[in-house]
Each structure stands twice: as C-alpha cells, then as structure tokens.
Amino acid sequence: MPHTGPVNEQRQRTERLRLAASDSPDAPWRLWGPYLAGRQWGTVREDYSASGDAWTSFPFDHARARAYRWGEDGIAGICDVHGFLNLGLALWNGEDPILKERYFGLTNNEGNHGEDAKEYWWVTDGTPTHSWMQVLYRYPQTEFPYAELRELAASAGRESREPELSDTGALDENRFFDVVVSYAKAGPTDLCVEITATNHGPDPAPLHLLPQLWFRNTWAWGRDERKPSLTASSADGWHRIVTEHGKLGRYTLHVEGAPALMVTDNETNEMALFGAAENPTGYTKDGIDRHVVRGDATSCQVVPDKAVTTSLPGTKAAAWYSFDEVAPGESVSVRLRLVEGDGHVDAFGPSFQSTVDARRAEADEFHHDLVPDADPVRAAVSRRALAGLMWTKQHYRFRTREWLDGDPAQPAAPGSRRSPAARNSHWRHFDCADVISMPDEWEYPWFAAWDLAFHTVPFAMVDPAFAKEQLLLLCREWLMHPNGQIPAYEWEFGDVNPPVHAWAALQVYRAEENPDRRFLAKIFHKLLLNFSWWVNRKDADGSYLFEGGFLGMDNIGPVNRSEPMLGQWRLEQSDATSWMAAYSLHLMQIALELARHDESYEDVATKFVEHFLGIAEASTQFGSDGGGIWDEADGFCYDMVSRRLPDGTVQSHPVRVRSMVGLIPLLASAVLEPWVFEELPSFTRRLDHLMARRPELVQFLTWQDRPDGRRNLLSLLDDRKLRLVLARMLDEGEFLSPHGIRSMSVAHREGMEVHVADQQHRIGYEPGESRTPMFGGNSNWRGPVWFPTNALLVEALRTLDSFHDGRFRVELPTRSEREVTAGQAADELARRLVSLFLPDHDGRRPADGKRVESTDSPLWREHITFSEYFDGDTGEGLGATHQTGWTALVAGLLHP
Prior knowledge:
Blueprint lengths: L8 H12 L11 E2 L20 H4 L2 H4 L11 E6 L4 E8 L12 E2 L9 E2 L2 E7 L5 E9 L5 H10 L20 E12 L2 E10 L5 E11 L13 E5 L6 E6 L3 E7 L4 E5 L5 H5 L12 H8 L6 E3 L12 E11 L4 E10 L9 H21 L5 H16 L1 E7 H6 L25 E7 L11 H14 L1 H11 L26 H11 L5 H22 L31 E3 L1 H22 L5 H19 L10 E2 L4 E2 L1 E6 L5 E6 L13 E4 L1 H6 L1 H13 L7 E6 L2 E7 L3 H11 L6 E2 L2 E2 L10 E5 L2 E5 L23 H18 L4 E3 L7 E3 H13 L23 H4 L7 E2 L6 E2 L11 H5 L2
Antiparallel strand pairs: 1-2, 2-3, 3-10, 4-5, 6-7, 7-8, 8-9, 9-17, 10-16, 11-12, 12-13, 13-17, 14-15, 14-16, 18-19, 20-23, 21-22, 23-24, 25-27, 26-27, 28-29, 30-31, 32-33, 34-35
Helix pairs in contact: 1-7, 10-11, 10-12, 11-12, 12-13, 12-14, 13-14, 14-15, 15-17, 19-20
C-alpha cells in the first residue's frame, strides 16, 4: 500500500531518470507493464457472429475454455508491450464452480443499467515506468454468486439501483481475502512479484493461489504457424517455468517453494463448447481449471511438488499454492520472479526484498515530488487517481481487414460483413497493435477517442512522453481514416466524438517545463486533416453550422441525435457548432505558438480566426427567426431543428431543453496575449484588416489596451450572453450541484414534453442511473456530473478571469448576492468536484454514496472508487467503477 516516509533526493531522481530515458514506446523500462486487459470477452474484436452481438458471441462462460483471437485478460495481470506473454493471478476458495481467472460482470443485456463489473478491486499504487505497481483484489470465501447476480439484475428495473456483489451476502462478516499483488522491477526485464492474501473473516478458510503464465494464441488462425512454448521444471531443486518466443526470446518465471506446476495449451475446448468430436490439441485453455476444481487428472500436465522432472512444451502454465487453512487475520504470501534469459541464481535472496523496498520508496518520493506540500488526504486521492490512470494502459490489437475477412484456419466470416453497412467495414485500413490508455479496464476495455484526449491531461503530470505519444497515435495513418476522421471506438469507428484533441495537445504542451514544439507541429499537421474532415462531412452545405450525432453525450437529447430525422428536418447542434468554434480557436493557438519560430504558420492562424468568426456569425443568424442557437427569452443556447420549405424559406424551432448542450458555447473562447501582436506582425495586420472589412464581427472580440500591450478575447458569446448563461450554470436550482455542474438542469426534474420536428418527446432530469436504454443505457447525461465537461468549464472560467484581470464578476450561487471573480468561481467549482473524494464531517466520501464503501468498516472506507459519473443530487459515483481515465482529471484539480 502507499505509505509516506522521508524524502531521499537520490531515490527521488531515480524514477525521473528512468522516465527521462523512456521517451519512446519501445523504451526498455516500458517493455513490461499493466497492459493486460481486465476483460477481453464480449468485445467487438472477438465477435465473429452474423448478428454483431458481441456480448452473446463471446460470453463470460466461454472465456475459460475458448482462445481469444486478439487479446487476453486476467486479474491484476501484466504482459509485454506486444501482448505476447502474460502473467496474472487465478484463485480458488474450494467452493467456486470454476477457477477465478478473470473478473466477472454482467453484459449489457443482463444488467439493469447495461454492462457492469460485479467484483471489487482497486489499483493502489504505481509509477509511470511501471517499476512499481500494486493492485488489491477482494475475493469471497464463499461460492461466488454468479447466478444470483444475474437473477437480481433481471428482477430489478431501470428505476432500481444496480445489484452488487455486496448485496448477495457473499462478503458478510468480512468473509473475504484481500489479495495484494505487487510488482517491482529490478531491471527492465527482471520483475519481482509478491502476492499476499489476508483472511479478514471470523473463521479459518482455505485458499488456493495460482499465478499463471501464458502466451496469447497467435498460431491457430492460419496466418502465422510459429508457436511459442513454455515448460515447467523442478530439475536442480528449483521450480520454474521457462518460455521461448520468437520475438521475446527466453524468459524464466521462478516460483518460490515447491508448488505443483501445471502445463496446458491456450487452445479452445471445442468438445466442451461446441460439441466437436475432438479437440485440435490434447490440452486446452481450461485444463488447469478442470484439474484444480474438478480433479481431472488428464486435463493438463502436472509436475508434482516433490518430483524432479520437466514437462513437455505447452503454452499456458500455473504454479499451484494450496493453503488448507488461513486463520482469521493471518496473511499468506507467495513470491515469483520473471527474468529474461535462463534464470536467476538467487531469485529470492536479499536482492528480491531490497528491490521491493526500493521501488516502493521511490514511488513514495515520486508522488511526494509531484505535490510536495499537499495535505496528506488530498495527496492520497491524487496518488490513487494517478495510479489507476497508469493502470489503464492496455495492449490493443485489432487488424480490421483480417477481422472483416475472417481467418484462413477458422470458419468463413459471415456474409453480412461484406455489406457496406457492416460495422467498421469502411475502416479496413485500421491496424493497431499499440499500448493505449483505456477508459475502464473492465467496462470499456477499448479506447474511446475523446476519453483518451482527456486522459492525456493528467498523464502529462506524470508521464508527458506517453501523453504526447497517445495523442499522436490517434492521428497515425494506421488509425486515422484516410479522409481525416479520428476513430471513435471499436463498436463503431465511424461514430463522432467531440473534437477535443487540439485542446488536449495544448494542455500537454503547456504542462512541460521545456515545451516540445516538435510534438506540437506533428499533432497540428495531423489535426489539419481532421478539421477538414469535420468541415467537409459535418458542415456539408458550408453554412458553418455543424451536426455530429450524440457527440459523446449519449442520451442528452430527447431524441437519438445520431439517427437521421424524418420529414427533411435537420438537427443544428448547439454543442457540435460550439465544439467546432472551440476547435478553431485551439488550432489558432497552436498555429500562433508555432509561428513564433516559423512565420509560415501565421497564415494558418489567420485561417482559423476567420473560421471561428464564420461559425460565430452563423450561430447567431440561422433559423426562421434568425436567432441561431441563442434563445433570448431564456438567456440560453439550444439545439435547433430546421428544414427548408419548397418556397425557399426556413422553418425552425429550438429543442428547448436546458442541458450541457447549452453550456458548451462557454468553452469557445481564447485570449490573444500581447506577444501575439508584438511578435507576429503579419497575423496582426490580417486581423486588423478583417475587422475593418467586417465590422459586424467585432461583437465576438473584446479588446484591451494595457501597459504591457494589446490583448484580445475571442468568444462565441458576448459579455451579456456570457453572464446570462453563467447565471443559469451557477444556479443551484439549475445546473450547480454540491459536487459540480450537472449535465441537465434540475428545473426539469418533473419531466417535460418537448416538441421536436413534428413529434412530441418526453425528457426529464435524472440525477442517477439512466432510465432509458438509449446507447445501451449504461451511462446518463440527463443530470449527473461528469468530470470531462466540468474540467473544461473550470478552464473556461479561468480564461475569462485571466483576460479580465479579476474584474469579471458573477453571483455564486446565482441570487445569493455574493459576487466572486470568474477565477474564484472556477476555484469553487473545482472545490466541489474534489469534494466528491474527500471525507465529509462524518468521515464519508460523497462519491461512496450508499455503496458498501460508505460503511464504517475501514476495510472498505480506505479505498477510493473513481466512477464514470456522479449523481447530480448526492454525488454518488455511478456507471463504470474503475474510470480512472477522465475522472483522474481530479488530480489536476486537487493541485492546480
């Protein structure tokens, strides 16, 4: 567990020196990391069905006996950067019907609010080079209630809370083992592993710990017949598993003591799953499970604990540590050491413990160095958030062409995949085999474009090189579409996420003490392609008004914004148009920064100013009343639906729902500092000329003349509109909650009928889990607090404050007669967001809500859960429970 201690300057430098030497994805210290997924089953990559139902095509019940095509999964596991060799933990309590090899959860159809992990684990510590990693898994001592959890969810409706493992009684009286898995690298290819299990229950209980080492199956598909191997041996009196791989070479896993060693093959059990007459190999993926749980003596090779022998080659192995009784409060430990080459002559000698102690101390000092004077409670939240963020890295392999066409040695791909409408059929170029930061290791074990952009901001605090590499990766030719679109996520690469990558690139660039202009130029050139895609595809008529679909905010509208509208109606999206206005300003800022060293970028900066102004002007004029997205009566911004009638006139009306859609225009602002006008004369002349030629655009610029020079604020909303929208946002009867800005106004709590394009729809404020199945029903943008948009709003307020030097003041809360500066409003919003994870006067964290973590037991309350989103009334964490992707933004808010 993280602990504090005296700061040693030499050690403090050690992790930073490693990090400085690891500025590329193939750096030695990055070879091994937490790149193993928490879930591979139920993903699009593993779905070869005609229906496209990934959840039923490869269900949990197949995972123990069926080889994966594209990746692997495991508990508290690691793998090499290529995803070839994997090390994870399996457990058995003597009661479960199957070996516990992977986390369990419900599918989208099984859960009453979509897919949901039904286990408890926490990432407790880590460093950016993965020299130190630690995870805690909570394992029940009674039979795991797989069927009961499914039944509870099936009987619960969308109005009910999600049933959790703690609701079944399986963890009552603390009848569980806390299993802490720690990894400490003695070198880039020398990993010390310690597994410690503690019985917190009132009675002695048996426990079986089975560390497993296995190869991803790369040979059964008919594309590469080379097959790696591993053998288990107790020869010479020391137990080990030796692996051979064409790329990795030889690795040896030392196992302390004399456990039984078991070897099988990572091959599908065709007979058990599909009724085949025989299996392709004598041993299958579930061989170890069948031997341990069912006593099948023929399901795998066994090297007994007292024998001196070596197994035949296989591709999956385990060391079986059996503890007949672990007394209450007692801990048992096993130690492993994974080393490149033939092995370590003294694997568990003094160097093992000294490595663990040194890496733990270096982690203490690394995190202390990030915020040296931080309050210990706040520092602990930051450390947990960043540790979880660093654990989200996953090896993501997916070659869409092969997936669409099928593999030579497997059944032919369904004919439906040849349809132009088939999932990802227009992304045949996509070919990824990279480490990517995932939103959540179980619920979202695949990258999501806009999530990833937000991940890079806290990553820049601890690992700027990785943050930059991630942003560039999304724009590389093997991911980005040839037309310039950035892939959204594997469920449909062609979906559209908000264009926040230029914003993220600026944040990452500014976070470094020595800004990396080469990175900024590389990402800028790629984003030019993406910007062109947006303009050509989402503003097809050149009106400067943008569509985009759901844009990451799944169910925020009364209608599915990704579906085409009937009757020639078109949805003019307040958020899509505002996102593009902000995108223009972010690209302008990048171009200006680059122009300081290369004047050719001045022309491009001017282009983006003009595009921003074009969007700003159009947003005020379209529609039958010429009012644009702005509604004067409500002092707010709305989506609009419009259509052109046969006589050429435009019929339109607003979608009058106050939601985050109407707050996104606040994000479209940027300050031109005095250095712009001093250092970039060509840009300055063009801007002055534009204002002289188009005086009607002056409303979107605010000028200041100060002693240090001329300044300008470009903003989609003028001063009056800004104040009106902020009054809504900072109103506790609307958007302002005790823990951040809600995604929908609480004024809609009772629900309302909304007229949209000749139809009536009902929508209302829903503070917690979604009550609609739209977009799977596992997230909700109709009321909860979300960190990504809140973080952007905090920054928008600080931009406003910076320009006005503290003279822009607002009421906070609205109607309180308490005026604060925009900067103070930003600080207060950040404070409310941070408070989700800090103990209140009762010692409870609001984010824990009514979950088991809020109980008085320190075994629960010491662990912080970083959820996907938070109840708009209470702050309880909801949705995915390991969302240390964008929720890790809290680290930056804790220490601005």
